[in-house]
Amino acid sequence: MSTPNTNTPSNPPITVAIIGNGVIGSALALGLHKRNIRVKVYEQAQTLRSIGAGIAFTKNARECLALIDPRLDACVTAVGTVNGDPRDPNNNMQFVDGYTHDPVEHCLPNEEMVGRFVFKLFAGERGFEGCHRAQFLEGVMEVMPEEVVCLGRRLERYCLPGEGENQSDKIKLVFGDGGVDEADIVIGCDGIKSRVRQLLYGRDNPISHPHYTHKVAYRGLVPMNLAISHLGSYRALNQHMYGGPNAHVLHFPVADQKLMNVVAFVNDLDDWPLDKGMTQPASKDEIAAAFVDWGPTVKGVIELLLRSKEMDKWGVFDMYEYPAPRYAEGRVCIAGDAAHASAPHHGAGAGIGVEDALALCVVLERAQREIDSGYRGKVDALGFALKTFSDVRYERSQWLVRSSREVCETYEWVNPECGKDMAKGFEDVKARSHQIWYFDIEGMVKDLQRAFDMVPAEDLVL
C-alpha cells in the first residue's frame, strides 16, 4: 500500500442516501449511523408500516445483523418466536412427504403423520425463529434516530454531478412531491420493483424489472389455538415443510406462538402482468382444488388457511431471467431485493440482503477513513467502495436467485435427480441450505478490505 497523499485537502463527512425503509434499508441505515456516517433514508410510504406476514432470519443473517449493529439482532430476539416447546426449542427445519397416503384409510390430520419419517435439518441454535416483518421493523425504528428516516418521499429521478442542471459535486435527488435533496452516494434498497434499478438500467430494459415465476403463494395467519385443535400441539408449534407433486406447503409459528404462518405454493400457467399488484384476493376454490389429492394433514393445513381472515394470493416474481450485470455504477448502487430478488423457497432473501448491508457498512467505513486521511479523494474512494461491494457480493447473491428456483423443484418432486425420493431430495436441500447458513462472513469482510489494500490510490481507475 502506498504512502497516503497528505497534500489532498480534507473532505467533509460523506453523505449517503438510502432509498427504501424496508428490512435492508433500515438495517443499513442503522449500521452506517453507528459508524458515524451521515445517512438519510427516503421512504415513499407516508407512515412507518410494513406489509407481509412471517419472516425468518437464518444463522448467517443473525450473525451479520449483530456485526452491523448488535441492536438489530436484539430486535430479532425480542420478536422472534421459538420453534416448538419454549422449554426445549426445536432448532430444526423439518421436511415430510405430505402427499402419499392411503385414500381408503380415513384419519384425522393430527393422526396421519404418526410414525411418518420426518427429515430434520439442524439450523443452528435459534437458527430458525419466525417473526412478523412489521414487528421486527417496529423494533428497528425504536432505536433509529428520528432525523434519519424521511417519509412520503418517492424518488422520481436523480441527476449525477455535472448532469443537466446539477453543477454540484453531489448527486441530486428529485422526489415526487417536488422536493430536492443531495448526497454523495445513492443506495437503492427499494425492493423488487426498485426505482433506482430502473434509473440505472433504463425503464424499458427487461433487466430493470422482476419477472413472473409462474408460482403463486397463498398466505395466511391462523390463530394458534385453532391450529392446535386441528393439527395437535407438536405439528402446530413446529415448522414443517410438506413436499408433493407440483406444489408444497410450509407453516411455522409467529407472534410469540399466538399465530401459525401458512404458505402454500402452487403452479400457475397464466401470466401475471407487472402492473397488476403482486398481492391479490385469493379464491378458496382454486387453492382447495390444488390440494384435493393430498394427504389428510396437508388438507387440514389448507382448511385452516381457507379459514384465515386475511388470506391472500401472492404472485412470486424474481430476477432470474434478466439479472443485473453489476450492482453499482459510479456512486449509485442497488442492494437486497433491488439487486437480486429471489423466489422465497430458501427463506433466505432477507438474509442475503442483510449480508449486503454488512458489506456496504464495511466498504463505506473504509472509504470514509481513506477520505479523512487524504489517501483517496471522495469521488474515487466512494466509487471504488461501491464497485468492491458489487464485485464481492455478486456471485453468491446470484447463486441464491438460481438455487431458490431449483430447490423449489426438489420440494415439488420435479427435480430429475431426486423425483419423489424424499431422502435424495433432503440431501439436495441440505447441501443448498448449508451453503447459505455456513457462509464465511469473516472471509467476505477480508475480501472487501483486501480489495482496498491491493489498489493504490494513484492506480485507481473506475
TrEMBL record:
Pfam families: FAD_binding_3. Keywords: FAD, Flavoprotein, Oxidoreductase. Residues 182-365 form the FAD-binding domain. It comes from the Eukaryota. The keyword Nuclease does not apply. This is FAD-binding domain-containing protein.
